[in-house]
Specification:
By secondary structure, the chain is an alpha/beta fold. It is about 25% helix and about 25% strand. The chain is built from six helices and seven strands; from the N terminus they run H-E-H-E-E-E-H-E-H-E-H-E-H. A seven-stranded mixed sheet has the order 2-3-4-1-5-6-7, with helices on both faces. The longest helix is centred in the C-terminal third of the chain and has 19 residues. It is globular and about 45 Å long.
């Protein structure tokens, strides 16, 4: 994928494309949304990353990500061509509460949401689940396993997040394109099942 990102033909969508779809990639602060979109996007993703400053020290809890130095302040955007006629757009939402006013516009027209979670910080996922449900989005849970020491089994994740039985729970490493693709496929299969 990376080798094609700089060619002119991959920058623009083909004239053959007749259908586009929008998926949100959501989750709490520092869970890997930007990394996830970057691992799948066929184009260089649009990122609105800014350096974290002392002003955010009292607002952004870095307990789970002490080395984090930047944060998304508006959105991440990536593109994935699924066939000659179908293109998928991935929109990553910012994770902090102060940016939640962006959600309404980003949720409009989205087919569903892939909700990334860090198993060591599950409590931070509840406000995101609330927003996903508020905007009526179907979703799947993608447990980002970038920290193998914080791994929990599916039943523990389901119970901790109080998920409905049909909500998919998959494990992925947001840095790995194949793993990220499996999580996206799980969401799409869930959306197709719900639409049937």
């Amino acid at each position: 994928m990376d080798s094609n990102r700089s060619t002119a033909e991959t920058i623009y969508v083909s004239d053959a494309v007749t259908t586009t779809a929008k998926i949100l990639v959501v989750g709490h602060f520092a869970v890997g949304k930007t990394t996830y979109i970057g691992s799948l996007s066929e184009i260089a993703p649009l990122r609105t990353e800014e350096k974290m400053t002392q002003a955010s020290a009292q607002v952004d809890d870095l307990k789970g990500a002490p080395d984090k130095v930047t944060t998304t302040v508006a959105l991440d955007f990536g593109r994935l061509t699924l066939s000659e006629e179908l293109v998928l757009y991935l929109f990553g939402t910012p994770g902090q509460q102060r940016f939640m006013q962006l959600w309404e516009d980003m949720a409009r027209g989205a087919l569903g949401a892939l909700l990334l979670v860090d198993p060591s910080r599950l409590a931070e996922t509840f406000p995101v689940i609330d927003l996903v449900e508020k905007y009526g989005l179907e979703y799947a849970i993608a447990v980002n396993t970038f920290d193998p020491a914080a791994e929990f089994d599916e039943d523990e994740i389901r119970e901790a997040l109080d998920l409905l039985p049909d909500t998919p729970v998959v494990y992925c490493d947001a840095r790995d394109p194949k793993s990220s693709a499996r999580a996206l496929i799980a969401l799409v299969q869930h959306l197709l099942t719900r639409a049937a």
